[in-house]
Amino acid sequence: MTSDLKSLNRTEAILSAKEIISTHRAIVVLTGAGISAESGVPTFRGKDGYWKNYKAEELATPAAFESDPQLVWEWYDIRRRKLLNVKPNPAHYAIAELEKKSDDFTLITQNVDGLHLIAGSKTALEIHGNIWRVRCTYCGIKEENTQTHFEGLPRCTSCGGLLRPDIVWFGEALPEEVLTEVYNSLNRCDVLIIVGTSGIVQPAASFAYTAKNNGSKVIEVNIEETYLSDISDVKVLGKAGEVLPKIVGGMD
Ligand code: OAD
After folding, report:
1. CB of 237 closer than 6 A to ligand 1?
2. What are phi and psi of 237, to 5 degrees?
3. Beta carbon of 240 within 6 Å of any ligand 1 atom
4. Per the count of CB atoms within 10 A, which of 37, 45, 215, 230 is most buried?
5. How many CA atoms lie within 13 A of 26 on its CB side?
6. Atom of ligand 1 nearest to the CA of 32
7. Would you give per-residue pLDDT tens digits along the chain (252 residues)?
């Protein structure tokens, strides 16, 4: 069945995805930067993946922040400023719609842009944090912070310590309570829909394997083949904002 489904054209793949989703109960959706690409948020890899010749892996690290916090904040400030003018796209809305139609639904996102919640998703397990939250490197306090165009480095209002984005950087552990919820959902789901992720960054890259090993179907939506394509039962090649509304539409 798996290999037959993989060779489907896009229309057939959409129909197969629809069929799988409507005949299974527990749904998990995992999203990556690709879902926000049509909103105008740059992805991390591919042609958009560089800023001043740096890769995300060189800036989103505790070591980079320690050696040059100004540079790292400058990068995040640019990403924040881009987000100010950005709105969810039809893919985000389709996922919020699917949640409404499902009895058992979990959304896991690697994105820090907050667009799923703006689109109406009730909850999103934001495994990499949120760009609009900061954390004090000294006292650990976390707070929402929507400031842009920083003059100098942002400081904690309680203790004056240096603030950092409340984002999980390379080499850092994901929040344990979020991971527990993630694995609970992956252990009981019977459909995992993966949207717009290259499947390179762990642990998210292994979530499809966890679900698959537990007997779940895996549906992938991406504009190109990824490391996760081989284990996907259905691969829908196309832009998330075009494909997801078709998969979710008319499914009551
Ligand atoms: P990547 O930038 O690695 O991958 C984006 C994926 O989206 C690629 O597979 C693209 O083919 C696909 N894509 C692009 N446009 C699309 C569209 N319109 N519709 C569907 N797919 C599309 O992003 P992630 O896999 O999310 O971590 O990267 C994972 C993590 O690496 C990020 O969360 C970030 C980064 O370092 C942190 O910030 C901590």
Report:
1. no
2. -85, 120
3. yes
4. 37
5. 11
6. 26
7. 444 555 679 999 999 999 999 998 999 999 999 999 999 998 888 766 666 778 888 899 999 999 999 999 999 998 899 999 999 999 999 999 999 999 999 999 999 999 999 999 999 999 999 999 999 999 999 999 999 988 899 999 999 999 999 999 999 999 999 999 999 999 999 999 999 999 999 999 999 999 999 999 999 999 999 999 999 999 999 999 999 999 999 776
Q: Among residues 236, 223, 224, 249, which one has the least CA distance to residue 90?
A: 249
Ligand 1 in contact with 43 (CB < 6 A)? yes
Q: What proportions of the chain, in percent to the nearest 5, are helix, strand and coil?
A: 40, 20, 40
Co-location of 80 and 116 in the same domain? no
Catalytic residue positions? 128
- Do 81 and 93 lie in one domain? The reply is no
Which of 44, 59, 133 to mutate for ligand 1's pocket (most ligand atoms within 8 Å of CB)?
44
Residue 115 sits in the same domain as residue 238? yes
For residue 84, what are its two tokens? Answer: 């100010």
Q: Which atom of ligand 1 is nearest to the CA of 224?
A: 11
13 lines ligand 1 (CB under 6 A): no
* 104: three-class secondary structure by DSSP: strand
Range of the domain at 78: 46-85+135-167
Q: Check whether residue 73 and residue 139 sit in a common domain.
A: yes
Distance CA 156, CA 136 (A): 6
Report the nearest-CA residue for atom 17 of ligand 1: 239
